[in-house]
Write a structure and sequence with these properties.
alpha/beta; Rossmann fold; 7-stranded mixed beta sheet; 5-stranded parallel beta sheet; binds thiamine diphosphate
């Protein structure tokens, strides 16, 4: 898409992620780097459409952060985006980036996931901005996200600092009509050698720490006057200090109240908060997750009412606000989400069926295959963070004697599994790692990664050969197998799992969502069916048990992988050549 096409449209219905990307594009962004993760993935996907922007999926968030930061130092406006936990991976770079500062504007977009819709935890990254001592911008809506990201670039250049723009799932994925504007072409800045600024050896870093605190003092003054922090004086009997989507929730429930709405919440506008508090009879602080605003407000000695600690867990909802104001604890609602399940024909399914049969203990990782932990498969036994499956194998091998295996997806292996595999080899650990290679990052929507040989712009590039990587890491046996060949798969896993060697089995078959299977649903002979329910053991959503106890194959769901045919002992299910 080029700038002219966009201008003709004027208005577009954009999500918060897309609005951030659009704002950054209009503000002259040149380089963007990210690693997929919900709810942040759409930012880079949107940016990748623009010829003016060099957008890349990096191998992981640390590398993405460093690519974007270095482009800023080299003089180009740049942006890093990730989900909240992605920033943990980039934390080492983040902390010292505050010391180094920037050259051209550098914006960090963190998309947090209150309520844990699709994450391993629900950490509140506002705290990370404070720890790193970088300005924190909190939009409340997609339209604000677009405007605020522009201000973020200006703050970054004015104060020589990385700036964090923090969204949450509700803002990232809510859609709103957004006005599209022309892109500003911002000239690149020249890179000037400045060793005391850019080389963080102890003496320089000490000096830069002093500079960092001076910068925070200046930003503190800015926070008092910027329109990002706005006061709405209405009914002074009740007032709220709030930020992010919480502002909209409170406004909906208490439209006549007074507000101090914080769009720049670190550094905290202390005087503005004190002045607001003086005018308000009953003051409340409303925020999602951690008591981040609350702590800063209490430190100023401002009297305020805050939420019951039970609201630190999960998302806020508008209907919670009156309850919070009444000082009531949260009433947990029953969890009613759809039960997640691997897709029909998912190539991961049979690996877990085999591991279950072998009663293996599987250290697991993050991806679609984490669903192997759910019954009836229930054969993935740990999941901590990306890459941990491989390092966990090492610890488990020290305690659990036999039948231990690590399972990890291809994208996750490239992200964080490779150093852990080198560690296994270096520390002489023997054991089996299974790489579930479905040739995509399926969990987050099917993004390419280095082992797919494709870039985000759909161009072919050098393809990382996983077999070669494993051998180079010091693995003794590297086998590649099609996980649809169930018997061979079982034999191979049995052979390798307790061998006195370090082995990797690459179970390779593309994700069903990228390689549409044209096979037909199997034939089902009800007469032969013994209701033994072996077919249910592989947890395929196309197979259901009806109320009368009989089995039904839903031909609309079935993709014809025929894995159920393999497990059907009475041979009631048979391969079908036509529908
Ligand atoms: C630090 C971090 N970054 C990103 C994510 C988002 N995420 C979850 S699983 C996953 C990778 C899934 O791809 P793969 O390992 O190939 O498994 P698949 O889903 O394709 O089976 C990603 C990027 C995350 N949970 N944590």
């Amino acid at each position: 898409m080029n700038n002219k096409t966009i201008l003709r449209k004027k208005l577009a219905f954009l999500s918060g992620d897309e609005a951030v990307a659009q704002g950054a594009f209009e503000e002259g962004l040149k380089v963007a780097a990210s690693y997929p993760g919900t709810p942040a993935s759409e930012i880079l996907e949107y940016l990748s459409r623009f010829n003016e922007i060099d957008a890349q999926w990096s191998v992981n968030e640390k590398v993405a952060f460093e690519v974007a930061l270095s482009a800023s130092i080299a003089g180009l406006r740049s942006l890093y985006a990730s989900k909240h936990v992605g920033l943990n991976v980039a934390m080492d770079a983040l902390m010292t980036s505050a010391y180094i500062g920037v050259n051209a504007g550098f914006v960090i977009v963190s998309c947090d996931d209150p309520g844990i819709h699709s994450s391993q935890n629900e950490q509140d990254n506002r705290l990370l901005a404070k720890i790193a001592q970088i300005p924190l911008i909190e939009p409340s809506s997609p339209a604000e996200a677009k405007e605020f990201v522009k201000t973020a670039f200006k703050i970054s250049e004015q104060f020589d600092t990385p700036v964090m723009v923090r969204l949450t799932t509700r803002i990232a994925h809510t859609k709103e009509n957004i006005t599209l504007e022309a892109r500003k072409e911002i000239p690149n800045k020249a890179f000037e050698v400045n060793i005391p600024k850019y080389v963080m050896v102890p003496r320089n870093a000490y000096q830069r720490h002093i500079e960092l605190l001076k910068r925070i003092t200046k930003l503190q003054k800015y926070a008092e006057t910027t329109p990002l922090n706005s006061v709405e004086l209405n009914n002074k009997k009740i007032g709220f200090i709030t930020s992010s989507v919480s502002y909209l929730y409170v406004k909906e429930m208490f439209p006549d109240a007074s507000f101090l709405k914080l769009g720049l919440s670190f550094p905290f506008p202390e005087n503005k908060a004190k002045e607001f508090a003086r005018k308000i009879k009953e003051l409340y602080v409303i925020e999602e997750l951690e008591p981040y605003l609350e702590e800063q407000i209490r430190m100023l000695g401002i009297k305020c009412k805050t939420k019951h600690p039970s609201y630190r867990i999960g998302e806020l909802k508008p209907e919670f606000i009156p309850e919070i104001v009444k000082g009531k604890p949260k009433i947990e609602e029953p969890y009613s989400a759809r039960k997640p399940v691997m897709c029909p024909g998912c190539p991961h399914r049979m690996v877990f069926a085999v591991l279950k049969k072998l009663k293996a203990v599987a250290t697991g990782d993050i991806g679609c295959y984490t669903l192997g932990a759910l019954p009836p498969l229930a054969s993935l036994h740990t999941c901590l963070c990306m890459g941990a499956a491989v390092s966990f194998l090492e610890g488990f091998k020290k305690g659990v004697d036999k039948n231990v295996v690590a399972v990890i997806g291809d994208s996750t292996f490239v992200h964080a599994g490779i150093p852990a595999l080198i560690n296994l080899s270096y520390n002489k650990t023997k054991g089996l790692v299974i790489i579930l290679d479905n040739s995509t990052t399926a969990m987050t929507g099917g993004q390419p990664h280095p082992a797919t040989g494709l870039t985000i712009k759909g161009q072919t590039t050098k393809k990382l050969i996983l077999e070669d990587v494993c051998r180079a890491c010091g693995v003794d046996n590297v086998d590649v197998i099609d996980p649809y060949k169930i018997k061979e798969l079982e034999e191979l896993i049995k052979k390798r799992i307790n061998e006195d060697a370090l082995s990797v089995v690459i179970a390779r078959r593309p994700c069903q969502l990228i390689a549409i299977n044209k096979n037909f649903a199997p034939s089902f002979d009800k007469e032969k069916c013994k209701n033994c329910y072996l077919c249910l053991s592989i947890n395929c959503p196309a197979i259901t048990k009806l109320d009368d106890g009989s089995i039904e194959i839903n031909k609309d769901y079935c993709c014809g992988c025929n894995l159920c045919v393999e497990v059907c002992a009475p041979k009631a299910l048979t391969k079908n050549e036509k529908s």
